[in-house]
Amino acid sequence: MKTIAVFDTGKTNIKLSVTNEAGGLIETLSTPNTVHDGPPYRHHDLAAIEAWLLDGLATLANRHDITAVVCTAHGSGGVLVDDDGPAMPMIDYEQAVPAEIDREYREIAGSFRERGSAVMLGAAHLARQMLWLERGWPDVFAQARHFLAIPQYWAWRLSGVATSEVTSLAAQSHLWCSADARPARLVEARSWERLIPPLRPAWSRLADIKPEISRRTGVKPTTAILCGIHDSSANFYQYQAAGLHDVTVVSTGTWIVAISDRSGPDFDVERAGLCCNADVEARPLSGMLTMGGREFAMVAGEDDRPTTEDSLARLIETRTMALPSFGSDDGLFPGTSRKGRLTGPLADHGDLRHALALLYAALLTDRCLQLVQTSTVVLDGSFVRDPLYSALIAALNPGRRVFVNADRYGTATGAALLASHETRQAPAPLALKAATPFLHPTLDEYRERWLRAAQTGGQDDGL
Q: Within a 10 A sphere around the Cβ of 194, how many other Cβ atoms?
């Protein structure tokens, strides 16, 4: 059976999977994404990742007939390269940039429409990383050949062909104006065009795998290396390939990422959490973005007890709340970073922390959904392992159809489906389950109180 290999670079973990041609997962390997503190700054170990990738391809090629490789990754990483490899280490996006770089970047980044997202934490945004590299290492920057988003970096390492791709540039890089489907004006203003290779579609075949990699791994020399795709856009693509429309997909992990194919938000007006991504055809996608997984973990702490309907009811009835934000990112509520707190009669009950974290995550998700309206909502990712998460979302959105996709490998599925983008004759298979609402008479009142308190920094929590 012919299979597709998907190399997925996440912030925390890296996966190499093989799927069938319909995107069904067959086997996956994983390893932590190691970060070194420096010098010259906190960075990812690209050499170690590449060695692991090649070893993994060799392992999987012994068991599977791999016909194509697709690379996918989060949207906040890029690599400055010369002809031979990295010219500088890949910056960890949670690394703080020097204060003078941050000030300059905020002055030149442009309007919200140009950026497509807020100016976020650390070294997030490829454009901010480029400015730091240009200012900090001007000689290296001047001699570099390309600046590549992570999926296209690995496609280049495997094929030798350097490209750019629209979903990767549209993923809060600040290099692409998604609303207008064009490069951001910052690119021309900084004379960065020379570093950004021509765009190719995510599904395009760049070349066969390099002969030396074929010999080392045992992967067939005719194996195609595709251009690659941003991870959330890959996940969204699986639903597009299945024929869904008027849909918001909420993917949960380190981030809560809500992406919709329905227009509506005014991208000339910046709103907390709002972002503008792009699909594989370069059409703008409305989105919301908040670091919900990180927030969940900070609230839950060491409590891993299963959430029950009774524990949720106790929290709601006593108005016990987690108020944003516990991490370094403001998320959906400007000015709240590192000001998160627990309030209410049961706030000190350690046996309810997991339930409180789940309720908090559901409220953050619901806030995203209120700002991106569609008739259908699909939930996937790590949070859906707990059925009460989807039950809360369904209860808070009674006018919408809410479904759950329990497949934990949606990014791999979507990325693999790119291999059949131009030949697919029917909608791709998709297994969804309708969410059953968690009904509680005061849940709506609880949400309204939580939202008021979140927006006022807890000054109006009524507790």
A: 11
pLDDT tens digits, one per residue of 306-330 = 999 999 999 999 999 999 999 988 8
Cα–Cα distance between 441 and 162 in angstroms, integer? Answer: 57
* Among 73, 226, 220, residue whose Cα is nearest residue 155: 226
Classify burial at 135, counting beta carbons within 10 Å of its beta carbon; exposed 0-12, middle 13-18, buried 19 or more.
middle
In angstroms, the CA 148 to CA 168 distance is: 9
Q: By C-alpha distance, which of 159, 153, 157, 198 is closest to 68?
A: 159
pTM: 0.92
Contacts 24+ apart (CB under 8 A), 92-96: 92/35, 92/41, 92/42, 92/43, 92/44, 92/122, 92/123, 93/11, 93/122, 93/123, 93/124, 93/129, 94/42, 94/121, 94/122, 94/123, 95/41, 95/42, 95/43, 95/122, 95/123, 96/122, 96/123
CA-CA distance, 22 to 427, in Å (whole number)?
10
Show the CA angle centred on residue 56, arms to residues 54 and 58, nearest 5°: 70
Tokens for 448, please give them.
């309204």
